[in-house]
Protein backbone atom coordinates (compact mmCIF):
# COMPACT_ATOMS: atom_id res chain seq x y z
CA UNK A 1 0.00 0.00 0.00
CA UNK A 2 1.54 3.35 -1.00
CA UNK A 3 2.15 5.85 1.76
CA UNK A 4 -0.06 8.84 2.04
CA UNK A 5 1.69 11.97 0.87
CA UNK A 6 0.88 15.55 1.78
CA UNK A 7 2.74 17.11 -1.17
CA UNK A 8 2.99 16.22 -4.86
CA UNK A 9 4.62 12.84 -5.25
CA UNK A 10 7.89 12.53 -7.16
CA UNK A 11 7.82 10.82 -10.55
CA UNK A 12 11.51 10.16 -10.95
CA UNK A 13 14.51 9.18 -8.90
CA UNK A 14 18.02 9.86 -10.14
CA UNK A 15 20.28 7.34 -8.43
CA UNK A 16 23.88 8.46 -8.74
CA UNK A 17 25.36 5.10 -7.82
CA UNK A 18 29.00 6.16 -7.85
CA UNK A 19 31.07 9.14 -8.86
CA UNK A 20 33.83 6.86 -10.10
CA UNK A 21 34.16 7.22 -13.86
CA UNK A 22 36.69 6.20 -16.49
CA UNK A 23 36.15 9.50 -18.36
CA UNK A 24 37.53 12.91 -17.49
CA UNK A 25 35.08 15.20 -19.23
CA UNK A 26 35.74 18.89 -18.56
CA UNK A 27 31.97 19.52 -18.53
CA UNK A 28 31.32 17.07 -15.68
CA UNK A 29 28.54 18.47 -13.50
CA UNK A 30 29.41 16.41 -10.44
CA UNK A 31 30.74 18.33 -7.45
CA UNK A 32 34.30 19.62 -7.22
CA UNK A 33 35.01 17.69 -4.02
CA UNK A 34 34.32 14.02 -4.68
CA UNK A 35 36.12 12.64 -1.63
CA UNK A 36 33.00 13.23 0.46
CA UNK A 37 31.05 10.82 -1.73
CA UNK A 38 33.39 7.85 -1.85
CA UNK A 39 31.68 5.96 0.96
CA UNK A 40 28.94 4.46 -1.22
CA UNK A 41 25.62 2.92 -0.29
CA UNK A 42 25.54 -0.86 -0.22
CA UNK A 43 23.39 -3.01 -2.49
CA UNK A 44 20.85 -3.50 0.29
CA UNK A 45 20.67 0.21 1.00
CA UNK A 46 20.02 1.04 -2.63
CA UNK A 47 17.37 -1.66 -2.79
CA UNK A 48 15.64 -0.13 0.20
CA UNK A 49 15.81 3.29 -1.47
CA UNK A 50 14.21 1.90 -4.64
CA UNK A 51 11.48 0.20 -2.62
CA UNK A 52 10.71 3.39 -0.72
CA UNK A 53 10.82 5.41 -3.93
CA UNK A 54 8.27 3.13 -5.62
CA UNK A 55 5.96 3.43 -2.61
CA UNK A 56 6.33 7.20 -2.72
CA UNK A 57 5.12 7.24 -6.32
CA UNK A 58 8.36 7.19 -8.30
CA UNK A 59 7.84 5.63 -11.75
CA UNK A 60 11.16 6.26 -13.46
CA UNK A 61 14.57 5.33 -12.15
CA UNK A 62 17.67 6.80 -13.73
CA UNK A 63 20.81 4.87 -12.87
CA UNK A 64 23.70 7.23 -13.31
CA UNK A 65 26.97 8.41 -11.80
CA UNK A 66 29.86 8.74 -12.56
CA UNK A 67 29.74 5.54 -14.45
CA UNK A 68 27.04 3.25 -12.99
CA UNK A 69 28.63 0.19 -14.61
CA UNK A 70 31.50 0.62 -12.16
CA UNK A 71 29.15 -0.79 -9.55
CA UNK A 72 29.57 -4.55 -9.44
CA UNK A 73 25.98 -4.93 -8.23
CA UNK A 74 24.42 -3.05 -11.16
CA UNK A 75 22.56 -6.13 -12.41
CA UNK A 76 21.15 -6.84 -8.96
CA UNK A 77 20.05 -3.25 -8.62
CA UNK A 78 18.29 -3.31 -12.00
CA UNK A 79 16.59 -6.58 -11.13
CA UNK A 80 15.27 -5.11 -7.90
CA UNK A 81 14.01 -1.91 -9.56
CA UNK A 82 12.44 -3.82 -12.39
CA UNK A 83 10.59 -6.12 -9.98
CA UNK A 84 9.20 -2.98 -8.33
CA UNK A 85 7.76 -1.92 -11.70
CA UNK A 86 10.08 1.04 -12.09
CA UNK A 87 11.02 2.18 -15.59
CA UNK A 88 14.78 1.70 -15.53
CA UNK A 89 17.15 3.89 -17.52
CA UNK A 90 20.90 3.31 -17.51
CA UNK A 91 22.89 6.48 -18.20
CA UNK A 92 26.35 5.30 -19.18
CA UNK A 93 29.53 6.14 -21.02
CA UNK A 94 29.25 2.66 -22.54
CA UNK A 95 32.57 1.69 -21.00
CA UNK A 96 32.08 -1.53 -19.09
CA UNK A 97 29.12 -2.68 -21.15
CA UNK A 98 30.47 -6.07 -22.17
CA UNK A 99 28.29 -8.57 -24.04
CA UNK A 100 27.87 -10.61 -20.87
CA UNK A 101 27.00 -7.61 -18.74
CA UNK A 102 24.57 -6.33 -21.37
CA UNK A 103 22.80 -9.69 -21.57
CA UNK A 104 22.52 -9.82 -17.79
CA UNK A 105 21.06 -6.33 -17.68
CA UNK A 106 18.62 -7.21 -20.43
CA UNK A 107 17.46 -10.31 -18.56
CA UNK A 108 17.20 -8.27 -15.36
CA UNK A 109 14.62 -6.07 -17.10
CA UNK A 110 16.54 -2.90 -17.93
CA UNK A 111 14.18 -0.78 -20.06
CA UNK A 112 16.47 1.75 -21.66
CA UNK A 113 20.13 2.59 -22.20
CA UNK A 114 21.56 6.03 -22.88
CA UNK A 115 25.14 6.16 -24.10
CA UNK A 116 27.22 9.32 -24.13
CA UNK A 117 29.42 10.41 -27.00
CA UNK A 118 31.74 13.36 -26.79
CA UNK A 119 31.98 14.12 -30.51
CA UNK A 120 31.54 12.61 -33.97
CA UNK A 121 35.10 11.36 -34.40
CA UNK A 122 37.61 9.42 -32.31
CA UNK A 123 40.28 12.12 -32.07
CA UNK A 124 38.03 14.83 -30.68
CA UNK A 125 35.81 12.49 -28.67
CA UNK A 126 38.78 10.87 -26.94
CA UNK A 127 40.39 14.24 -26.32
CA UNK A 128 37.26 15.57 -24.60
CA UNK A 129 36.71 12.32 -22.68
CA UNK A 130 40.35 12.37 -21.64
CA UNK A 131 40.77 8.70 -22.47
CA UNK A 132 40.52 6.40 -25.50
CA UNK A 133 36.83 5.54 -25.48
CA UNK A 134 35.17 6.40 -28.80
CA UNK A 135 35.47 2.97 -30.40
CA UNK A 136 34.31 1.25 -27.21
CA UNK A 137 31.28 3.49 -27.13
CA UNK A 138 30.38 2.54 -30.69
CA UNK A 139 30.76 -1.12 -29.80
CA UNK A 140 28.51 -0.67 -26.76
CA UNK A 141 25.93 1.15 -28.86
CA UNK A 142 25.86 -1.69 -31.40
CA UNK A 143 25.37 -4.13 -28.55
CA UNK A 144 22.40 -2.13 -27.31
CA UNK A 145 20.79 -2.36 -30.74
CA UNK A 146 21.57 -6.06 -31.12
CA UNK A 147 19.89 -6.90 -27.83
CA UNK A 148 16.76 -5.11 -28.99
CA UNK A 149 16.91 -2.08 -26.73
CA UNK A 150 16.08 1.30 -28.19
CA UNK A 151 19.25 3.37 -28.51
CA UNK A 152 19.52 6.85 -27.09
CA UNK A 153 22.74 8.75 -27.65
CA UNK A 154 23.60 11.75 -25.55
CA UNK A 155 26.08 14.40 -26.57
CA UNK A 156 26.89 17.30 -24.28
CA UNK A 157 27.45 20.34 -26.48
CA UNK A 158 30.00 23.07 -25.87
CA UNK A 159 32.47 25.34 -27.63
CA UNK A 160 34.79 22.48 -28.60
CA UNK A 161 32.28 20.21 -30.33
CA UNK A 162 29.39 22.42 -31.46
CA UNK A 163 30.89 22.95 -34.89
CA UNK A 164 30.75 19.18 -35.38
CA UNK A 165 26.99 19.05 -35.01
CA UNK A 166 26.37 17.81 -38.57
CA UNK A 167 28.84 15.00 -37.99
CA UNK A 168 27.14 14.10 -34.71
CA UNK A 169 23.75 13.99 -36.41
CA UNK A 170 25.10 11.82 -39.23
CA UNK A 171 26.85 9.49 -36.83
CA UNK A 172 23.70 9.03 -34.75
CA UNK A 173 21.74 8.30 -37.90
CA UNK A 174 24.29 5.79 -39.17
CA UNK A 175 24.28 4.04 -35.77
CA UNK A 176 20.53 3.63 -35.98
CA UNK A 177 19.87 5.70 -32.87
CA UNK A 178 16.20 5.98 -31.97
CA UNK A 179 16.80 9.09 -29.94
CA UNK A 180 19.53 11.69 -29.88
CA UNK A 181 19.81 14.01 -26.95
CA UNK A 182 21.85 17.12 -27.65
CA UNK A 183 22.37 18.87 -24.36
CA UNK A 184 24.10 22.19 -24.14
CA UNK A 185 26.45 22.24 -21.17
CA UNK A 186 25.14 23.38 -17.83
CA UNK A 187 27.76 24.95 -15.66
CA UNK A 188 27.57 23.02 -12.43
CA UNK A 189 30.27 21.31 -10.44
CA UNK A 190 33.43 20.78 -12.45
CA UNK A 191 31.87 22.40 -15.53
CA UNK A 192 31.64 25.67 -13.61
CA UNK A 193 35.43 25.80 -13.49
CA UNK A 194 35.60 25.43 -17.24
CA UNK A 195 32.79 27.76 -18.17
CA UNK A 196 34.89 30.27 -20.07
CA UNK A 197 36.34 27.51 -22.23
CA UNK A 198 33.05 25.67 -22.72
CA UNK A 199 30.67 28.54 -23.40
CA UNK A 200 30.08 28.77 -27.16
CA UNK A 201 29.63 31.84 -29.28
CA UNK A 202 26.25 32.91 -30.57
CA UNK A 203 27.34 32.14 -34.13
CA UNK A 204 28.17 28.57 -33.13
CA UNK A 205 24.76 28.14 -31.55
CA UNK A 206 22.90 29.63 -34.49
CA UNK A 207 24.69 27.26 -36.81
CA UNK A 208 23.98 24.25 -34.58
CA UNK A 209 20.33 25.09 -34.12
CA UNK A 210 19.81 25.41 -37.86
CA UNK A 211 21.44 22.01 -38.34
CA UNK A 212 19.22 20.48 -35.66
CA UNK A 213 16.07 21.94 -37.25
CA UNK A 214 17.03 20.55 -40.64
CA UNK A 215 17.83 17.12 -39.20
CA UNK A 216 14.54 17.01 -37.30
CA UNK A 217 12.71 17.61 -40.53
CA UNK A 218 14.76 15.09 -42.48
CA UNK A 219 14.77 12.35 -39.82
CA UNK A 220 11.33 12.85 -38.32
CA UNK A 221 10.30 9.33 -39.28
CA UNK A 222 13.29 7.62 -37.72
CA UNK A 223 14.98 9.57 -34.95
CA UNK A 224 13.72 11.75 -32.13
CA UNK A 225 16.07 14.67 -31.54
CA UNK A 226 15.98 16.33 -28.15
CA UNK A 227 17.76 19.65 -27.92
CA UNK A 228 18.47 21.12 -24.49
CA UNK A 229 18.81 24.87 -24.98
CA UNK A 230 21.84 26.81 -23.76
CA UNK A 231 20.35 28.81 -20.92
CA UNK A 232 23.02 31.52 -20.96
CA UNK A 233 21.63 32.57 -24.34
CA UNK A 234 17.98 32.48 -23.29
CA UNK A 235 15.90 35.43 -22.15
CA UNK A 236 14.22 33.28 -19.56
CA UNK A 237 15.70 30.73 -17.18
CA UNK A 238 15.07 27.03 -17.55
CA UNK A 239 12.20 25.63 -15.48
CA UNK A 240 14.73 23.81 -13.42
CA UNK A 241 13.59 20.36 -12.27
CA UNK A 242 10.04 21.56 -13.13
CA UNK A 243 10.09 23.13 -9.71
CA UNK A 244 12.20 22.42 -6.66
CA UNK A 245 11.27 19.13 -4.98
CA UNK A 246 8.18 18.85 -7.13
CA UNK A 247 8.69 16.08 -9.70
CA UNK A 248 11.95 14.31 -8.93
CA UNK A 249 14.75 13.75 -6.48
CA UNK A 250 18.36 12.62 -6.50
CA UNK A 251 20.24 10.29 -4.20
CA UNK A 252 24.01 10.65 -4.50
CA UNK A 253 26.59 7.87 -3.94
CA UNK A 254 26.95 8.33 -0.18
CA UNK A 255 23.19 8.37 0.34
CA UNK A 256 22.64 12.10 0.61
CA UNK A 257 19.31 13.10 -0.90
CA UNK A 258 18.99 16.23 -3.01
CA UNK A 259 16.14 17.94 -4.85
CA UNK A 260 18.35 18.16 -7.93
CA UNK A 261 21.65 16.61 -9.01
CA UNK A 262 23.55 19.87 -8.62
CA UNK A 263 22.26 20.89 -5.20
CA UNK A 264 25.23 19.72 -3.15
CA UNK A 265 26.57 23.24 -2.77
CA UNK A 266 23.18 24.83 -2.18
CA UNK A 267 22.69 22.61 0.86
CA UNK A 268 26.05 23.72 2.27
CA UNK A 269 25.39 27.33 1.38
CA UNK A 270 22.18 27.24 3.40
CA UNK A 271 24.11 25.82 6.33
CA UNK A 272 22.05 22.65 6.28
CA UNK A 273 23.58 19.39 7.44
CA UNK A 274 23.49 16.63 4.82
CA UNK A 275 20.30 14.57 4.99
CA UNK A 276 20.62 11.05 3.72
CA UNK A 277 18.87 7.76 3.24
CA UNK A 278 21.13 6.07 5.78
CA UNK A 279 19.38 7.98 8.57
CA UNK A 280 15.98 8.83 7.12
CA UNK A 281 13.23 7.33 5.02
CA UNK A 282 12.81 8.71 1.54
CA UNK A 283 9.25 9.69 2.43
CA UNK A 284 10.41 11.83 5.35
CA UNK A 285 13.12 13.39 3.22
CA UNK A 286 10.69 14.24 0.42
CA UNK A 287 8.04 15.67 2.67
CA UNK A 288 9.84 17.06 5.66
CA UNK A 289 13.53 17.67 5.17
CA UNK A 290 14.45 21.36 5.34
CA UNK A 291 16.40 21.29 2.07
CA UNK A 292 13.45 19.90 0.13
CA UNK A 293 11.03 22.35 1.71
CA UNK A 294 13.31 25.34 1.27
CA UNK A 295 12.30 26.30 -2.29
CA UNK A 296 9.15 24.24 -2.76
CA UNK A 297 6.24 26.28 -4.05
CA UNK A 298 6.44 30.07 -4.42
CA UNK A 299 6.60 31.57 -0.95
CA UNK A 300 10.41 31.73 -1.01
CA UNK A 301 10.48 33.82 -4.19
CA UNK A 302 11.99 37.30 -4.24
CA UNK A 303 11.07 40.00 -6.71
CA UNK A 304 11.00 40.05 -9.69
CA UNK A 305 9.82 36.40 -9.54
CA UNK A 306 7.16 36.88 -6.89
CA UNK A 307 4.96 39.07 -9.06
CA UNK A 308 6.03 37.64 -12.43
CA UNK A 309 3.53 35.90 -14.69
CA UNK A 310 6.18 33.36 -15.62
CA UNK A 311 6.72 32.09 -12.10
CA UNK A 312 4.45 29.11 -12.84
CA UNK A 313 6.44 28.39 -16.01
CA UNK A 314 10.05 28.65 -14.91
CA UNK A 315 9.75 28.51 -11.10
CA UNK A 316 12.34 31.26 -10.69
CA UNK A 317 14.88 29.27 -12.67
CA UNK A 318 17.70 27.32 -11.16
CA UNK A 319 18.54 27.59 -7.44
CA UNK A 320 21.95 26.07 -7.97
CA UNK A 321 22.87 28.56 -10.66
CA UNK A 322 21.64 31.44 -8.50
CA UNK A 323 23.84 30.17 -5.68
CA UNK A 324 26.87 29.51 -7.87
CA UNK A 325 26.77 32.97 -9.43
CA UNK A 326 25.51 35.18 -6.59
CA UNK A 327 26.23 33.21 -3.43
CA UNK A 328 22.51 33.38 -2.54
CA UNK A 329 20.35 30.45 -3.61
CA UNK A 330 17.13 32.38 -3.09
CA UNK A 331 17.82 35.02 -5.74
CA UNK A 332 16.28 34.98 -9.20
CA UNK A 333 18.32 32.90 -11.63
CA UNK A 334 20.72 35.43 -13.20
CA UNK A 335 19.93 33.94 -16.61
CA UNK A 336 16.57 35.74 -16.48
CA UNK A 337 16.74 39.09 -18.26
CA UNK A 338 14.66 40.55 -15.41
CA UNK A 339 17.13 39.45 -12.75
CA UNK A 340 19.08 42.26 -11.06
CA UNK A 341 22.11 39.96 -11.44
CA UNK A 342 21.67 39.41 -15.18
CA UNK A 343 24.87 41.37 -15.83
CA UNK A 344 26.79 38.36 -14.54
CA UNK A 345 25.52 36.37 -17.52
CA UNK A 346 25.86 39.21 -20.00
CA UNK A 347 29.52 39.60 -19.10
CA UNK A 348 30.47 35.97 -19.77
CA UNK A 349 28.37 35.85 -22.94
CA UNK A 350 30.04 39.04 -24.11
CA UNK A 351 33.45 37.51 -23.43
CA UNK A 352 32.52 34.34 -25.33
CA UNK A 353 31.68 36.45 -28.39
CA UNK A 354 34.54 38.89 -28.13
CA UNK A 355 36.98 39.05 -31.02
CA UNK A 356 39.96 39.32 -28.68
CA UNK A 357 38.88 36.32 -26.62
CA UNK A 358 41.76 34.35 -25.15
CA UNK A 359 41.70 30.62 -25.73
CA UNK A 360 40.96 28.84 -22.49
CA UNK A 361 42.31 25.37 -21.98
CA UNK A 362 39.81 23.00 -20.44
CA UNK A 363 40.78 21.30 -17.20
CA UNK A 364 39.94 17.60 -17.34
CA UNK A 365 38.01 16.05 -14.49
CA UNK A 366 40.44 14.07 -12.30
CA UNK A 367 39.73 10.44 -11.55
CA UNK A 368 38.12 9.45 -8.26
CA UNK A 369 38.14 6.17 -6.38
CA UNK A 370 35.22 4.60 -4.56
CA UNK A 371 34.43 1.91 -2.08
CA UNK A 372 31.33 0.14 -0.87
CA UNK A 373 31.16 -0.45 2.86
CA UNK A 374 29.79 -3.93 3.51
CA UNK B 1 7.10 -2.64 -48.55
CA UNK B 2 6.43 -1.99 -44.91
CA UNK B 3 7.56 1.17 -43.29
CA UNK B 4 7.46 2.54 -39.81
CA UNK B 5 6.82 6.15 -39.11
CA UNK B 6 6.42 8.54 -36.29
CA UNK B 7 4.15 10.92 -38.10
CA UNK B 8 0.54 9.86 -37.97
CA UNK B 9 -0.94 9.67 -41.44
CA UNK B 10 -4.39 9.16 -40.08
CA UNK B 11 -4.74 6.12 -42.32
CA UNK B 12 -7.19 3.66 -40.72
CA UNK B 13 -5.05 0.81 -42.08
CA UNK B 14 -2.02 1.91 -39.98
CA UNK B 15 -1.03 -0.52 -37.27
CA UNK B 16 0.03 1.31 -34.12
CA UNK B 17 2.46 -0.01 -31.56
CA UNK B 18 4.11 1.46 -28.47
CA UNK B 19 7.58 2.76 -29.34
CA UNK B 20 10.33 0.40 -28.23
CA UNK B 21 11.43 2.62 -25.34
CA UNK B 22 7.89 3.12 -24.05
CA UNK B 23 5.96 1.14 -21.48
CA UNK B 24 2.47 1.46 -20.02
CA UNK B 25 1.75 0.66 -16.40
CA UNK B 26 -0.80 1.42 -13.74
CA UNK B 27 0.51 3.93 -11.21
CA UNK B 28 -0.77 2.54 -7.92
CA UNK B 29 0.33 5.54 -5.84
CA UNK B 30 -1.81 7.92 -7.91
CA UNK B 31 -4.36 5.39 -9.17
CA UNK B 32 -3.97 6.22 -12.85
CA UNK B 33 -2.69 4.69 -16.07
CA UNK B 34 0.64 6.06 -17.24
CA UNK B 35 2.75 5.72 -20.37
CA UNK B 36 6.41 5.87 -19.46
CA UNK B 37 9.53 6.76 -21.39
CA UNK B 38 12.87 7.91 -20.00
CA UNK B 39 11.89 11.52 -19.45
CA UNK B 40 8.12 11.61 -19.89
CA UNK B 41 5.06 10.43 -18.03
CA UNK B 42 1.81 10.60 -19.99
CA UNK B 43 -1.37 10.02 -18.00
CA UNK B 44 -4.23 8.33 -19.85
CA UNK B 45 -7.75 7.47 -18.77
CA UNK B 46 -9.31 3.99 -18.82
CA UNK B 47 -10.37 4.26 -22.46
CA UNK B 48 -6.92 5.47 -23.44
CA UNK B 49 -5.32 2.57 -21.63
CA UNK B 50 -7.67 0.17 -23.41
CA UNK B 51 -6.62 1.63 -26.76
CA UNK B 52 -2.92 1.38 -25.93
CA UNK B 53 -3.34 -2.23 -24.85
CA UNK B 54 -4.66 -2.99 -28.33
CA UNK B 55 -1.69 -1.29 -30.02
CA UNK B 56 0.19 -4.50 -30.76
CA UNK B 57 1.53 -3.62 -34.19
CA UNK B 58 -0.91 -6.11 -35.76
CA UNK B 59 -4.32 -4.51 -35.30
CA UNK B 60 -5.16 -1.55 -37.50
CA UNK B 61 -6.51 1.73 -36.17
CA UNK B 62 -9.85 0.76 -37.67
CA UNK B 63 -9.89 -2.60 -35.90
CA UNK B 64 -9.00 -0.97 -32.60
CA UNK B 65 -11.85 1.51 -33.04
CA UNK B 66 -14.29 -1.31 -33.79
CA UNK B 67 -13.12 -3.33 -30.84
CA UNK B 68 -13.50 -0.34 -28.58
CA UNK B 69 -17.02 0.31 -29.81
CA UNK B 70 -17.86 -3.16 -28.61
CA UNK B 71 -16.81 -2.18 -25.10
CA UNK B 72 -17.76 1.47 -24.71
CA UNK B 73 -20.93 3.27 -25.75
CA UNK B 74 -19.55 6.51 -27.03
CA UNK B 75 -16.58 6.18 -29.32
CA UNK B 76 -16.77 8.87 -32.01
CA UNK B 77 -15.19 8.26 -35.39
CA UNK B 78 -12.09 10.34 -34.88
CA UNK B 79 -11.55 9.58 -31.19
CA UNK B 80 -9.13 6.69 -31.53
CA UNK B 81 -7.32 8.33 -34.43
CA UNK B 82 -6.89 11.65 -32.58
CA UNK B 83 -5.77 9.95 -29.38
CA UNK B 84 -3.15 7.94 -31.23
CA UNK B 85 -1.99 10.95 -33.23
CA UNK B 86 -1.29 12.66 -29.91
CA UNK B 87 0.86 9.76 -28.77
CA UNK B 88 2.63 9.64 -32.13
CA UNK B 89 3.47 13.34 -31.77
CA UNK B 90 4.99 12.57 -28.37
CA UNK B 91 7.05 9.76 -29.88
CA UNK B 92 5.23 7.26 -27.66
CA UNK B 93 3.57 5.32 -30.49
CA UNK B 94 4.90 4.32 -33.90
CA UNK B 95 2.72 3.49 -36.90
CA UNK B 96 3.41 0.50 -39.10
CA UNK B 97 2.10 1.04 -42.59
CA UNK B 98 0.96 -0.99 -45.54
Structure notes:
- The complex is a heterodimer of chains A (374) and B (98).
- The model of chain A has no long low-confidence stretch (mean pLDDT 94).
- Chain A starts with 11 loop residues before the first strand and ends with a strand.
- The longest helix of chain A has 17 residues, at 202-218.
- Chain A is built from 15 helices and eleven strands.
- A nine-stranded mixed sheet of chain A has the order 8-7-6-5-4-3-1-9-10, with helices on one face.
- Chain A has 374 residues and is of the alpha/beta class.
- In chain A, strand 9 and strand 10 form a beta hairpin.
- In chain A, helix 2 runs parallel beside helix 3 (99-108).
- Chain A is globular.
- By secondary structure, chain B is of the alpha+beta class.
- Chain B is globular and about 35 Å long.
- Chain B is built from three helices and six strands.
- Chain B has helices at residues 46-54, 61-71, 79-89; strands at 3-5, 15-18, 23-27, 32-36, 41-44, 93-97.
- The model of chain B has no long low-confidence stretch (mean pLDDT 87).
- In chain B, the strands form two sheets. Chain B has a three-stranded antiparallel sheet with strand order 1-6-2, covered by helices on one side. A three-stranded antiparallel sheet of chain B has the order 3-4-5.
- Chain B starts with a strand and ends with a strand.
- Chain B has one domain: Outer Surface Protein A, domain 3.
Amino acid sequence: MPWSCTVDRPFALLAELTYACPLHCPYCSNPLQLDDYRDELTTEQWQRVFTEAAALGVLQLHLSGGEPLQRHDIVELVRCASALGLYTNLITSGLGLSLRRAEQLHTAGLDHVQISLQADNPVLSDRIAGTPSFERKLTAARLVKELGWPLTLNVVLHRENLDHIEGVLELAESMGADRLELANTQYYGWAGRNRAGLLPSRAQLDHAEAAVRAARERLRETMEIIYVVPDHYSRHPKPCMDGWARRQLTVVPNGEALPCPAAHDVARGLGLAPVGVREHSLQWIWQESPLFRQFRGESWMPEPCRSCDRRHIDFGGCRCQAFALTGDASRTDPVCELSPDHGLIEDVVHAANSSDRQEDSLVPRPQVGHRVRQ
Amino acid sequence: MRSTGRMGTGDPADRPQLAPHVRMRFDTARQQHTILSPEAVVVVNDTGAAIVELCDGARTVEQIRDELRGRYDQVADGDVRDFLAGLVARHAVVMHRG
